[in-house]
């Protein structure tokens, strides 16, 4: 098998199903590095830590009073932040399982939280149309910056080394250049629900509620590719890159997992893919280092760990 064909293999064999959540699972994040640990958050207000290899639940984090919508993990895996309907950012210590800080300031539910690279700053994007940046080393309860350009709910964001990228229901992807103090806004015409950059931060994978996933040049805003065939019109279905960024992967509202070749945007076989969840697939994430593993989270209350086998 050629190297390019290996890169295009999608982990399609179900390794284990994680089923302790009650109600929709909204987010599933891998730990950083080679570890096989997963943090999941859901409608039942809980965050759960799992061993992906064994399929066992390690710990439950309870403090949220409303559904959990977003989780971000620090570079050393010692802490994480979460957000949801509480209108506050929750900071957690993994070892003790308790919150170390709660940051209030938004006027609506917080759809997304993301650390910067060294987890000294956390950014939060809200239903109130703002993004707020919080310095975790400071005692101040005030944000160090508030981004107010969005005209509707902020659903997704990414904190880079020199820029912040946000996606809003108003149909815009906004890129804030922190060094130059400049803002570029790209209008995509439909609500933006997820935006995932490539590792070199040159391109951005943007999911919108018109059943399109677009690859966009981050410096010019030019569309480089367009991935279609899946159904995504009403809910956040987070797309991701496959191993080595050779493919694009996304679950849809029919419970199917789709995959495309990054370069020619062709759907990888089988097409159409089989239905693997009973409801919407809300989140898809490939393991950061292992080419043979990915996870999907669904409104059916399950998180599934997928691996590649020779019979796929």
Task: Explain what the structure shows.
Belongs to the WD repeat MORG1 family. One of its GO terms (cellular component) is catalytic step 2 spliceosome. One of its GO terms (biological process) is mRNA splicing, via spliceosome. This is WD40-repeat-containing domain protein. By secondary structure, the protein is an all-beta fold. It has a single domain, classed as 7 Propeller (Methylamine Dehydrogenase, Chain H), CATH 2.130.10. Helices cover 2% and strands 49% of the residues. It is built from one helix and 27 strands. The chain has a four-stranded antiparallel β-sheet with strand order 1-27-26-25, with no helix packed on it. The longest helix has 5 residues. It starts with a helix and ends in a 5-residue tail after the last strand. The model has no long low-confidence stretch (mean pLDDT 95).
Concise synopsis of the structure shown:
One of its GO terms (cellular component) is catalytic step 2 spliceosome. With 312 residues, the protein is mainly β.
